[in-house]
Please model this.
Amino acid sequence: MKKLPLIQITLFALTFVTTLGAGALQQGSDIFEDPSGIIQGFPFAGTLMLILLIHELAHYIASRIHRVDATLPYFIPAPNLLGTFGAFIKMKSPIVTRGALIDIGASGPIAGFLVSLLASVTGLYLSDIAPAAHAEGTLILGDSLLFSMLTGLTVGIVPDNFDIVLHPIAFAGWIGMFVTTLNLIPVGQLDGGHIAYAFLGERSRILSIAIVAVLVVMGIFLWEGWAFWAVLLLIMKIQHPPVYYWEQPLDRRRRLAGIVSLIIFIITFVPAPFSVNF
Model:
């Protein structure tokens, strides 16, 4: 009889609690004064946890299909604005074909993107328009091409000196799309790195170097987080390990999955994701 994955279950439960707390604090609830107020964080926490879970389970299922030994998802609780640093699965055996690279690499971002898209549309319909608050320290979210289009379709034209106050479900959807973007960066062993290597082979290393350089420049001029992300990618190593059976070509379905992933990356990319009003 297989043992229960106690570590994964415990981390999932802890992360659900920390995201609940983060969601409640976003709503102005003082959970330290009144712990029952934590329930106000459920729309945000439930949505974000679902996005992360679907993303990682898609990876896990694709790995099992290709007989790659992979763990169930590890969630990472954190005392930050979101209550988490995300989730990941650990692959214990190599990915041996280009087709498997596409299936495993693209499955998570595409699945997570679809849930994020649904959450964003639903949350935007539930969002409010309010007079713009110009208080110092206000967090401002950047817009991707897709989120900007969704806002126009669901909310309409926002009058001057007014802002959209995102519903927690919409905020979770925005975060889900941002996480998708990060995973699809075509570097190293990120999901995007798997896809890039499946198409380009060893030439993907040149692309990885160029992307890291661009992230550094963007970190200087747009958002400091990109520079941090570039350093993290260098620490993780930008060289993708080779596959055993490179000669097996990519079929039309997998090429399409790669193209769809690239399109998702482009339309969800936010040059300056976060800024603070001074």
Observations:
- The radius of gyration is 20 Å.
